[in-house]
Design a protein that fits this description.
The first copy, chain A, is an alpha/beta fold and about 230 residues long. In chain A, about 35% of the residues lie in helices and about 15% in strands. Chain A is globular, with a radius of gyration of 18 Å.
Chain lengths: ~230, ~230
Amino acid sequence: MNVFIVHAHPEPKSFCSALCWSATEILRAQGHEVLVSDLHADGFKPVADAADFGTRQNPDYLVYALEQRQAYAQGSLAPDIQAEIGKLLWCDLLILNFPLYWFAPPALLKGWIDRVLISGLAYGGKRFYDQGGLAGKRAMLSLTLGGQAHLFDGPESVHGPLEDMLRPLQRGTLAYTGLAVLPPFVAWHVPYLSPAAREQLLQDHRHHLLSLDRRSPLKLAPRLADFDERLRPR
Amino acid sequence: MNVFIVHAHPEPKSFCSALCWSATEILRAQGHEVLVSDLHADGFKPVADAADFGTRQNPDYLVYALEQRQAYAQGSLAPDIQAEIGKLLWCDLLILNFPLYWFAPPALLKGWIDRVLISGLAYGGKRFYDQGGLAGKRAMLSLTLGGQAHLFDGPESVHGPLEDMLRPLQRGTLAYTGLAVLPPFVAWHVPYLSPAAREQLLQDHRHHLLSLDRRSPLKLAPRLADFDERLRPR
């Protein structure tokens, strides 16, 4: 299996960074190929703008998704985007590894999503959800957060279920492009871990990665066959 | 009323940018003061990293939220963050004006959130939701998207309710900091508008802004008084 880890944490010695490198080792030891994009180390550009296109279909008015489609077809996307797309197409499993900031990915990772999951490849027209451009591949979140699990353990908890907060990411992004989304690995309460709890969490992470093939994808999005031409429920 | 608009669209001639400048005019004509941060025009830095702090409490290991708290107390935050915080503290109403990318704010706006809504001011410890650091102020989303309203008009629609996709932003970010969140202005199907539909949408926007004072905040988050010391439901 080819695994592509997109990692976004500003501290190389953080627990979140440890998860990234530990996943790399564990998966390679299983015989998988692993590529990592370490977005902070790479100085990845997060802002989607006109500079992402070598030539423009319409130089006077930027419609980002239209230019993506055109530039991808012509091979004139910015080289850093092309390189990320190459890794995305190569992989069987995409892992997004990040600290949860404001119940969402950090801006740097959001920028990878905005710029790399391009229209015309990852989605476009009625190619989304089970018809998405990346169908056949799998994806998984690996995230760290400061809160404890009981703040998210059901509808009565103070923040409600974590999966509800992850909806734009797991459903609106990963499942939207056709990726089969495996259950996330969630590291709770990370800034406050004792050394023993940290070690246990690394073991849990190892177990999570080694059991991926026995896990079913989450049911996040409907089948488009259940909707009519105008995308109304049949 | 002091209004602070944070705007993030890469095309100055876009409908989204028109909403920003039109809101500025409409609100000023009502006698309000308006400040705009045009994040693309300003070249705003979206990535939260070590460069955001003039001095570091711990130069060897970056815990971003801890350094935010310390740097804010010492006045050693990066000048661009300080400037945005100044506008945030000045305002009575914060408007986030942006195109919805992947059912979420663009990376550039997410970066404004990651860097400007600092720990120690906007939130911290048990200061969140109704106890959040920005309580007493109001906020509102103003967003454009390509999809049509019927794709989001209830639980059976293909994407489910828009408010579910906006949960990390409206509840997890704005309401988290104590802001009272007014109903969003949503401009549907924007890339496909006829000139007449565009004009109607600008009128709807005007009406939305002029009726803000008659609108009740959304009920997004619980009261912390309903939770115990460990944040379990009482």
